[in-house]
Design a protein that fits this description.
The chain is built from 16 helices and 28 strands. It is of the alpha/beta class. It has three domains: 219 residues, Rossmann fold (3-Layer(aba) Sandwich); 182 residues, ANL, N-terminal domain (Rossmann fold, 3-Layer(aba) Sandwich), CATH 3.40.50; 96 residues, GMP Synthetase, Chain A, domain 3 (2-Layer Sandwich). Helix 2 crosses helix 3. The model has no long low-confidence stretch (mean pLDDT 93).
């Protein structure tokens, strides 16, 4: 499957930009301050090592369907660090498709993902080597393992090679390969409501739709000429989450510098703010309230010079309006951006809050985005009072690896146009503003009404005493299912159920209000801040309140 667009391979793009700024900083992690030339050298060496192991492209895209791959796959099983982004870029340069691995997986989940992806190579932090060792006998496709040492002290796995040794023994010459925009990038979904699925992207489409490259560039020189090098960005979420590595590559596409926090295994607010202060960073990526709340609490406790910081982007989860207001109280000149996208559609919509204005849940319409009718038979016009589906057209992913049926459901062709429909429900207001209601997969049918968990969560989190909240349904004789809120209260606050109901009633209709509350000391989320609704449903089911 080809493309009518002029497009590029990520490996070629990075090399073209590197040629314009070889001695400028590209990637900083702890005491490693790697220039563009350094990253070029290291990723070429990695690509040549993979190529020496007979990994690469074996069947060209034109001979395959959208749910097939003709390349070897490199599973990246790492915490954040220079090695994560080097592994992605080195894979692109070797015509090997990189894919993300959730490092919190237990052995059963890891076994599933490695087999489902058909991974032939893995790069792994030593900390995770014991879990990988548990499943190696059950994942016969894996034949190359590169191991990155860490403070766990775990020994090298049998048959594995230390990452730095692989680079040292390999050439830093440009690999003898002709890269293609058809070469794959694979992004595995989080699996918070079902089994993870590998979304296949043509690299040339991902460069624009996921990694933010200029769609107008028709040559690599044009692409590189638009890289002005102004971004100094800290991407706080794990790179194994799409938002983290998408924004890393977007930063590189501007000629900017990617910074990685010193403690990548957890969100450390002191580490984040200290790095921004020390390095004079101007861009911070977070994931919704789960990142914002502890970062804001630290700003209440400590004093930092954050005058360099101009943009905070929340990607992957919405940022509540009251938390935006808190950011603006600390940093009045800050621009706060909500970015909406999905594994299946890439980047979609954005909303900017600045100065005295802060809101959440609405986005201005942008080209290529649509709201389709509930029956998926037409596009809705502005002002039609129908709850439809948020959709995107244009450059889209090819589909799900090995799953043609799911591909057809998520990427339907309607009136001759191919759309991506990731599962978000939305309305299109008369002023062409998109009003987002939430994921259909986590709705609760109660008393004949469809209630969106995210909408109820946002209403409860408007209370200043709420640290975090997830909402799930449980069976009810009266309602069929009833809404239950799992709530963590902020330290130092005394909040009752009546207080929460009163606050939520200011934002949502009464029939959407929770019928019960469960107060907990910790709410389970992925390291990327994504809600774990399976945990929420189990917590609700086990409650007797």
């Amino acid at each position: 499957m080809g493309s009518s667009h002029v497009d590029f391979n990520m490996g070629d793009v990075h090399e073209a930009i590197a040629a314009t700024r070889p001695n400028e900083l590209c990637l900083v992690f702890r005491d490693r301050r790697l220039t563009w030339a350094d990253v070029t050298d290291r990723t070429r060496r990695l690509a040549n090592y993979l190529h020496s192991q007979q990994l690469g492209c074996h069947t060209e895209r034109a001979e395959l369907t959208g749910s097939q791959s003709g390349q070897d796959h490199l599973a990246i099983y790492l915490h954040n660090g220079n090695e994560y982004l080097e592994s992605m870029l080195g894979a692109f340069k070797a015509r090997v498709a990189p894919l993300n691995v959730n490092y919190r997986y237990v052995a059963e989940e890891l076994r599933y993902l490695l087999n489902d992806s058909g991974a032939t190579a893995v790069v792994v932090h030593s900390q995770f080597a014991p879990t990988l060792a548990e499943v190696l006998n059950d994942v016969p496709a894996v034949r190359v393992i590169l191991q990155v040492p860490d403070n766990s002290g775990n020994a090298l796995l049998p048959g594995a090679v230390w990452y730095e040794d692989a680079l040292a023994q390999s050439s830093n010459a440009k690999p003898p390969l002709t890269l293609s925009g058809d070469d794959l990038y694979i992004l595995y979904t989080g699996g918070t409501t079902g089994m993870p699925k590998g979304v296949l992207w043509r690299g040339g489409d991902a460069v624009v739709e996921c990694f933010g490259g200029p769609a107008s560039a028709t040559t690599l020189d044009q692409f590189a000429s638009q890289a002005v090098g102004e971004l100094r960005a800290l991407l706080a979420p794990p790179f194994m989450h799409g938002a983290g590595h998408w924004m890393s590559f977007r930063t590189w596409h501007t000629g900017g510098t990617v910074f990685v926090q010193d403690s990548p295994d957890r969100l450390d607010p002191v580490d984040v703010w200290s790095l921004i202060e020390r390095e004079r960073l101007n861009f911070l990526l977070i994931v919704g309230d789960a990142f914002a709340r502890p970062l804001l609490d630290e700003l209440d406790r400590g004093t930092y010079d954050l005058s360099s910081l101009t943009v905070v982007l929340s990607g992957g989860a919405p940022l509540s309006a009251n938390l935006k207001t808190e950011f603006l109280r600390h940093l009045p000149t800050l621009m706060i951006v909500d970015g909406l996208g999905s594994s299946e559609a890439g980047g979609q919509l954005s909303h900017v809050s600045a100065g005295a204005s802060a809101s959440t849940g609405t986005f201005p319409m942008s080209p290529g985005n649509h709201v389709l009718s509930a029956d998926l038979d037409r596009e809705l016009a502005p002002g039609e009072d129908e709850l439809g589906w948020l959709a995107k057209s244009g450059r889209l992913a090819l589909g799900y690896l090995g799953d043609e049926a799911k591909t057809a459901r998520t990427y339907p062709v309607i009136n001759g146009v191919r759309y991506a429909i990731p599962g978000d429900r939305a309305k299109l207001r008369a002023d062409s503003t998109i009003e987002l209601h939430g994921r259909d997969s986590v709705t609760i049918n109660s008393g004949g009404e469809k209630i969106f968990a995210e909408e109820v969560e946002a209403a409860i989190k408007a209370h200043a005493g709420v640290y975090d909240c997830l909402v799930a349904g449980r069976p009810s004789e009266r309602w069929g299912n009833e809404v239950v809120a799992v709530v963590r209260i902020r330290e130092g606050y005394d909040v009752s159920q009546a207080d929460l109901l009163a606050e939520a009633a200011n934002h949502i209709a009464r029939y959407k209000l929770p019928k019960a509350f469960i107060f907990v000391s910790h709410i389970e989320r992925s390291p990327s801040g994504k809600a774990d609704y399976r945990w929420a449903k189990l917590t609700v089911a086990q409650s007797t309140t």
